[in-house]
Inverse folding.
DNA sequence: TCCACGAACGCAAACGATTGCGTGATGTGG
DNA sequence: CCACATCACGCAATCGTTTGCGTTCGTGGA
């Protein structure tokens, strides 16, 4: 490349940099033209070696086939892309061993920062990054003492509870997801606290812990429907889980809403387009992704960043409200 | 690191390589122990600079929030991970400009190969990689003259058609997805060909082209339901699109299966766990992902690789078959 | 006793970029 | 006409590895 342009490689480097200082305008033009002609790209990896920053950030998620995390990752990637960063994503399957292995693999690429979307209670990934001095941000799930961008899951649970209470439901079930994820825990805590406060505490056997996803929801829903007195409404801490539970309600011969109402969480695109549109608590997923990247970027640049707690909103639809269209 | 171990850096390099030749067994042990103690990782990027292969592969997908592509990507990443490769994924949103930009960004990381999951008719990405000498494989969507791992979409369409024909359906609708994607095109072609052969050709206005996803399915479904004589069955080339169409059927006051049957495609996890389980044509998504990586790996190693065409299977469920459980 | 041989390890170049510093050319003011 | 500032560019070190080759040393056989 330097040979073709008849100049020194340092000149090429300067000419191709976004602020070409110390190179004649004519030379800059000539070099850049030649670069596009030859289809030449600067090797980001080699530059990373020299400058010390790879412009690469890692993202840890439980799994990408979970629509919620995929949505967040998409917005992280979009924000990162426009800022000139490349993202590398890793499925950890919420498995500590896998997480360690994947994090090691990532770290050996010298990334500039990490966004953790699969934080678990008792998980050490965040501490390890802190200790190694790698900038990081938690997203979706929070952990005490670490920078995070999340929605207020307690409030979200309370919104769902108040909605069901206002519709007259007194005996309700909760599908709480994974207890080790702060999301499931806090959503169900917020929900139960509101029912407690209203004087209708949710009994423990009306709360079932499952994983996330449709299949888990179906199983948990079956369990609730098989209680001697089934609940008149169900709060599922995840939309896909709610869809599975809808199947359980139907399989039990009950009618949706009329016999058993149901509220989901996250308001994924699918919720509004279901045959029976699903009432859901909307958490600003794409906004969370964007904000988490911005927070990480500030950390990378050595600036201060504060945790963000977004406000969820309940979107009522046909699974709880009559005549909704 | 070399200083700590009191040996030369070349010795460290050799000791840490998976086949340590030319280094004493005792030295190897000592160096490796020290490495774990110090939390030292070899810099993959620097090694890439020296050896010329980055152990990095790129994956192009339309979008990760599409469950189908997320599933494929997950299995690609799993296969790549065990082979010591890291994957970088890019959402192209089926937009040519974005695709170009993302591909350029990827290429400047000097990746060892690319898996293209968003190939479009008339798309130049594959040709460009071919010309630049970057190993690549198409997955999910095929393109004439390029190495690909796909399922037989024509056959899949035919399976859906034969299923509906055997149930007595004669006037059917098709939701064909994106016409520029080979999947949507070939599935609907296979479907229509089978109805043609049976003597019940599908009229053009019973075929609607939409995008993919639930929202697009809802809109397309509404369109079919508003025909003067609505179809007695619908074939949607994608499960999520089918879910949207189920909403349209319900909104039109019709009953699922009894008034309008529906068949989806891909058999994603959700299909079996829907309130009304969805009949779907199963394409081996995870297998496709794995095989595409293996094909790419062969190409990277300079071996020969042949295109793979997997066989789909129809899974009958409640949206077409009475009394299914 | 001497030489050949192999094992273990050090030396240095190379990968492709970035960047502080030095140098030559050009222009300008006194 | 000279001194000096300015601009454009080359030089060389550097990042962390890998790898061919050379060197040292110990051992065994003739």
């Amino acid at each position: 490349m330097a040979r073709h342009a008849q100049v020194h490689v340092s000149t090429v480097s300067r000419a191709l940099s976004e602020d070409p200082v110390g190179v004649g305008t004519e030379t800059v033009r000539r070099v850049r033209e030649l670069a596009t002609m030859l289809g030449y790209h600067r090797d980001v990896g080699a530059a990373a070696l020299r400058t010390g920053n790879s412009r690469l950030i890692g993202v840890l998620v439980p799994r990408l086939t979970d629509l919620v995390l995929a949505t967040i990752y998409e917005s992280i990637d979009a924000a990162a892309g426009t800022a000139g960063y490349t993202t590398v994503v890793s499925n950890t399957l919420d498995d500590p061993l896998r997480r360690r292995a994947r994090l090691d693999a990532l770290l050996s690429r010298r990334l500039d920062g990490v966004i953790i979307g699969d934080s678990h209670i008792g998980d050490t990934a965040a501490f390890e990054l802190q200790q190694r001095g790698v900038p990081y941000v938690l997203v979706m799930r929070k952990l005490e003492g670490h920078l995070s961008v999340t929605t207020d899951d307690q409030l979200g649970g309370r919104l769902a509870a108040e909605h069901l209470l206002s519709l007259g439901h007194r005996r309700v079930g909760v599908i709480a997801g994974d207890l080790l994820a702060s999301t499931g825990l806090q959503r169900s805590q917020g929900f139960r606290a509101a029912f407690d406060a209203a004087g209708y505490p949710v009994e423990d056997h009306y709360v079932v812990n499952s994983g996330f996803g449709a299949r888990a929801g179906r199983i948990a829903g079956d369990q609730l429907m098989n209680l001697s007195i089934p609940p008149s409404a169900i709060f599922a801490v995840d939309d896909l889980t709610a869809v599975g539970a809808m199947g359980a309600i139907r399989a039990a011969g009950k009618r949706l809403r009329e016999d058993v109402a149901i509220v989901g969480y996250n308001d994924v695109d699918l919720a509004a387009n279901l045959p029976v549109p699903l009432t859901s608590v909307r958490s600003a997923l794409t906004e969370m992704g964007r904000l988490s990247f911005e927070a990480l970027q500030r950390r990378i640049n050595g600036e201060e960043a504060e945790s963000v707690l977004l406000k969820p909103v309940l979107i009522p639809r046909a699974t709880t409200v009559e005549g909704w269209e």
